[in-house]
Amino acid sequence: MERVSVLCLSLLLCSLSGTEIIEQREVSPESVNVPQPGASDLHAVLREMSVKLAENRLMIQQLQTLNQEQAAKLKQLEKQSSHMDSQQQVGQVAFSASLLASGSGHTGPFNTHTTLVFRGVVSNIGNAYNPHTGIFTAPVRGAYHFEFYVFGSGGSPDSRVMLTKNGEHVFIAGETQSNGFGSGSNGASLLLEAGDVVFLHLHANRRIYDDGDHYSTFSGHLLFPM
């Protein structure tokens, strides 16, 4: 009876030991099959990264181009705004003056062409005309219109005045008669650059008359800037 009990106990221990070995084998790291990434998978990932990198580079180039275009447009707008501001600041230019501010009498004759100084200033908007030199200086590039009137008392010498731009004669006006007062006039529209000068020359060996009624005058104004 005792032998039977011992035998049963031995069988039970062997059974338990076998179960532990099986369990240890089931959880052994060597028995677990972990999948490893293959070379084809790595190549696919690299290809995807390369595509995304190329897309990002293209996007950066497009943004840089757009930024350059916007900067150029902004610069052009700033230039136009500055030009418009300049035009507004000097957009009103006009003057009118008589030869004498007071008194009466002849100016001339002189043996050379002489710049006439119109001292009786009626208006000088923009201060482009200098009543001390008789010279008009264009403040901006644009189209300007000038008119001048010449008055003579008759006899000899007669009256002859020339509209002059930068030293070159443009138009002339004069008065010639044996006796009595007479007048002549002329005008011109000129394209002037900023800094160009316009004035009236009294022709050599000629004379011009003026008095308190202001017959002899010189006027000009800016038609529009360009």
TrEMBL record:
Q: Which residues form a coiled coil?
A: 60-87
Q: What is its main location?
A: secreted
Query: What are the residue boundaries of the C1q domain, all occurrences included?
Result: 88-226
InterPro entries from the UniProt entry: C1q_dom, Cerebellin_Synaptic_Org, Tumour_necrosis_fac-like_dom
Q: Where in the cell is it found?
A: Secreted
Q: Which Pfam families match?
A: C1q
Gene3D superfamilies xrefs: 2.60.120.40
Q: Which positions carry the signal peptide feature in this UniProt record?
A: 1-18
Q: Which UniProt keywords apply?
A: Coiled coil, Secreted, Signal
- Under the cellular component aspect of Gene Ontology, which terms does the record hold? extracellular region
What is the protein name stated in its UniProt record?
C1q domain-containing protein
The organism is Neogobius melanostomus (round goby)
